[in-house]
Amino acid sequence: MQERAPHAITPNMLEFLFWLSAVLVVYIYIGYPALMGLLALNKRPVAYDDSYQPNVSILIAAYNEEKDIAETLENKIAQQYPRDRLEILVVSDESEDDTDQIVQRYARKSDVSIRLLRQTPRQGKTAGLNLIAPEAKGEIIIFSDANSQWASDALAKLVRNFADPEVGYVTGKMIYTHDDGSLMGDGCSSYMKYENWLREKETAVGSIVGVDGGIDAMRRNLYEPLSPDQLPDFVQPLKVVEKGWRAIYEPYALLKEKALKDSDSEFAMRVRVSLRAIWALYDMRQLLNPINHGRYAFQLLSHKVLRYYAFIPLAIMAVTSTILSNDGALYALAFWGQVIVYGLACVGHSRQSQGQNLSTAYGVPYYFTLLNWACFKAALAFSRGEKKVTWNPRKG
């Protein structure tokens, strides 16, 4: 009888790998959110107060944003908040266009205090925020992207949560829109709805583990200067939680942002954000210690670490189900299910490349695949030690 090679993969091993990967995928996308939903039934409320209106400083980092900066400043000036308790600080990261001149023009005519600081040489968003944060006079500092459009009451909705003495960081709700301002109906929007629902449940449990950088707020005395390669939208709230404060989600503080028009821009942005997030997880890996950080360590592992590396069990499931597809109905069902999902994703990619709007049937598989492919590329870059520091204006 011919002996099996000592390292050959047996059918039992393939089945084990398939079921392990399938369980992981289900847990990452369904099991963990369901668990948060159950834990949220024992809600930990936020003691917000709509009359709470401390001095606040809005911080904006900009690089060559002449196209959007005027509209962004007008949006912030128009916030429903006492004028004498609001200031806007803009750091220009050695902009080469008319960004600085536009900001200075608004500073001269606005009844809200607007200050411009110029960072030279160009060092990136994080270094820029480090530069202007010490200049902020407000008790609360709020982060806005240079193209972020907030609802008129967004600032007030964010700030009211700091009436709770346990709250140290608050993020708002991002919604993607078409150029005409109408809401997106594709996978990008569906993903944000999924993430926002999960943040709502995590807030009810205690603290969230992910935020939207275009509409965030924190107590000024909790701000820590970060290294230029760190992602402030991710690291700052983790540091706040590490200090014992809550980081929460405010669903009524709305940020509208135009979705990227082409898949290449969307993919490049996702790779960049995922890479910086993976580095942030590495920098803040002490929070993954369940002995010191208990449930939050579990949340960080489940929501972020496993999510960013979900491409591994997805790939294993695809390979093993293909090999086992003739060995049982369940494996065949898994194989053809993946063929359908990735087939729809390919069609979605083709249609978006042609400038067509995607329905949920194509948008969700496409965006799911795009996100995981971006995480794969980011993980490869991380393994090579690559980092992203500077940025270019987001194309919408």
How is the secondary structure organized here?
Elements: H1 11-39, E1 56-62, H2 69-77, E2 86-92, H3 99-109, E3 113-118, H4 125-132, E4 140-144, E5 149-150, H5 154-159, E6 167-177, H6 187-205, E7 216-219, H7 232-242, E8 246-258, H8 263-283, H9 290-308, H10 311-324, H11 329-353, H12 360-383
Parallel strand pairs: 1-2, 1-4, 2-3, 6-8
Antiparallel strand pairs: 4-7, 5-8, 6-7
Q: What key attributes describe this structure?
A:
49% helix; 12 helices; single chain
Q: Can you walk through the features of this model?
A:
The protein is of the alpha/beta class and 396 residues long. It is 49% helix and 14% strand. The chain has twelve helices and eight strands. An eight-stranded mixed beta sheet has the order 3-2-1-4-7-6-8-5, sandwiched between helices. Helix 2 links the parallel strand 1 and strand 2. Helix 6 packs across helix 12. The longest helix has 29 residues. The N and C termini lie far apart (65 Å). About 2% of the residues have low confidence.
